[in-house]
Design a protein that fits this description.
467 residues; 10-stranded mixed sheet; 15% strand; globular
Length: 467
């Protein structure tokens, strides 16, 4: 029987590697500590928080996002100490602070598992090498189910919650997020909660990269803090007064486009919050003729060339790809719970699942002699799901648990992954080359005001409770 298990392990290297990385991020001891520190007035009885998280992870990786299938199978196998219906109730009562801490602490344990000397996730400018790039953006968690009585007759689609995430461009991992139960919540009020989370997980100074919705007179000071810097796209409504004692400069970026840079103040002269910044302007950067205007507190043009800052901001788009993959590939498109708390917990697990696959992606790329960018996260995840499904059928859970106990530290796991995944490369995981679409000048029509028909679960339930 041992020889059969060993042959299964040899045929399913990605399954075993994924299980070990999942355990590194979602160690039971860490889960218990997270819940104990952030549970508030909630408590555990028969179903523990660590068991709940593992059930959600099992639903996402083995049962294609179906909580009913995962919970039902666990109940039939005697692994679920409560009825299936009670799991959904537990999901709806997990505090948002617990889910935020789950992602933060789980993500903190993964960078040490990346391969030795692994390349950065993106081509980061050398002039900014001493700064850790963190991209900030918000995401609405959509497609909430209308199972609750107060939601069944509402028209349109429902938003389950809102999260504001911080993604490290150096590692490609989601570092942390700040969550709000109201899916229609604006991103800006969530910044105060996100910044300390990311700073606690990142050593050294950070350069925050954000879109124009984060450009006002308050947020630049918060982004800078005591040690950090920022590169933020400027809105058209934010006023700028040039410094007459500092002449403007001009240049050409890496793509041959002309830019101009000036120094001065954002905000009117009468406002106490006005701030001295460097403004970099790049005209008509897209087919639609939009202009790009960046503000930054990196004032020294010789140390931080404008072309490097433009390149840094251009990499901000990577967070949109992260959100797309987390939604469409890693299971956030179909929500297991129907309340905001359950959606946020699922989002935390999905982000951790995305991070774990990025770790495997780096090791697999090294095994294939490729750069990490040449490996498709989606195709690799599909193969991981196939192998995990086979593993789940062929190897009993007691054996799996005992096997996963053999490795302790992150360094040991990193060396094990390097050895275990060596030679397992498959050309089917290679990412297809990106094809640039020809410029057409076409713009999608704007949706008229009042259309779209969605609201948030939180607001709908608040209205129901008041009536």
């Amino acid at each position: 029987m041992d020889s059969v298990r060993e042959s299964v392990r040899q045929e399913l290297p990605l399954a075993e590697a994924a299980l070990r990385v999942f355990r590194q991020a979602l160690d039971e001891r860490v889960l218990d500590e997270v819940y104990a520190a952030h549970r508030g007035s909630c408590y555990e009885q028969t179903l523990s928080f660590s068991a709940l998280v593992n059930l959600v992870l099992e639903a996402l990786t083995v049962y294609h996002g179906s909580g009913h299938a995962a919970f039902g199978q666990a109940e039939r196998e005697g692994r679920l100490p409560v009825r299936e219906a009670n799991v959904y109730g537990k999901l709806s009562r997990v505090p948002l602070a617990v889910s935020m801490a789950l992602l933060r602490e789980g993500s903190r344990r993964l960078p040490d598992v990346l391969p030795d000397g692994s390349e950065p996730a993106v081509a980061w400018p050398k002039s900014l090498a001493a700064l850790t790039p963190i991209v900030v953006d918000g995401k609405k968690i959509k497609n909430a189910a209308k199972r609750l009585a107060g939601l069944r007759r509402l028209p349109g689609k429902l938003l389950a919650a809102k999260v504001l995430a911080g993604v490290s461009l150096r590692t490609g991992l989601v570092v942390a997020f700040e969550a709000d139960p109201d899916g229609e919540r604006n991103d800006v009020p969530l910044v105060d909660g996100l910044l300390p989370q990311v700073r606690s997980a990142v050593d050294g100074p950070i350069v925050w990269i954000a879109d124009r919705q984060f450009a006002d007179l308050n947020l630049p000071e918060k982004f800078a803090g005591e040690r950090d810097h920022y590169v933020v796209r400027m809105t058209k409504t934010l006023s700028f007064t040039a410094d007459p004692d500092r002449p403007a400069q001009a240049g050409v970026d890496a793509n041959g486009r002309s830019y101009a840079e000036r120094w001065g103040w954002i905000g009117r002269a009468s406002e106490k919050r006005r701030r001295y910044v460097r403004l970099i302007e790049l005209g008509q950067t897209t087919d639609t003729g939009d202009e790009l205007r960046l503000i930054t507190d990196l004032l020294d043009a010789s140390l931080y060339p404008a072309s490097d800052l433009l390149q840094a901001y251009r990499l901000r788009w990577g967070i949109e790809r992260v959100f797309q993959q987390v939604t469409e590939v890693f299971g956030l498109q179909t929500l297991i719970g129907c309340r905001p708390e359950g959606a946020v917990l699922q989002a935390a697990v999905c982000f951790l699942l995305y991070n774990a696959i990025q770790v495997l992606r780096s090791h697999v790329a090294r095994a294939g002699g490729l750069s990490t960018a040449r490996v498709s996260s989606e195709l690799l995840f599909r193969e991981v799901v196939k192998q995990l499904t086979c593993w789940d059928y062929l190897i009993d859970r007691e054996t799996t648990q005992s096997e996963l106990q053999t490795l302790g530290t992150a360094e040991q796991l990193r060396h094990w992954l390097t050895t275990r995944l060596d030679g397992c490369w498959n050309d089917g995981w290679r990412k297809a080359p990106t094809k640039k679409k020809p410029a057409t000048g076409w713009k999608p029509p704007k949706t008229p005001p009042g259309h779209g028909g969605h609201t948030s679960v939180y607001r709908a339930l608040q209205t129901t409770q008041r009536s």
